[in-house]
Amino acid sequence: MAVPESPQPATHTWMNPMSHSGQALNTINDTDPFAMRYWARQLRLSEAELRRVIAQVGTDLQAVRQCANRPPAPRRGTIRRHGG
User: Fold this and answer.
1) What pLDDT, on the 0 to 100 scale, is given for residue 6?
2) pLDDT tens digits for range 60-75
3) Where are the domains positioned within the chain?
4) Taking Cα atoms as reference points, which of 45, 46, 51 lies closest to residue 69?
5) Quick check: 34 and 12 in contact, CB under 8 A?
6) Distance separating alpha carbons of residues 52 and 62, to the nearest angstrom
7) Are 28 and 35 in contact (CB under 8 A)?
């Protein structure tokens, strides 16, 4: 008798705004409240500031970073070294 495979755990794409497609890596979904909170936090902006920047340059992540003058956030686990 064959053992049925256990079902794969449900993946909730709403939990990670980066998981939809390659396009999501380069754009901000300004219609998704969770994505807006996520990117505002990543870019160290308020949601209102993020909306203003998006109104100016669109949803392209690089353009938003440039306009907001925000470098990419460090990856988790990255050790920041201070000059000395």
Assistant:
1) 54
2) 999 999 998 876 666 6
3) 23-68
4) 45
5) no
6) 15
7) yes
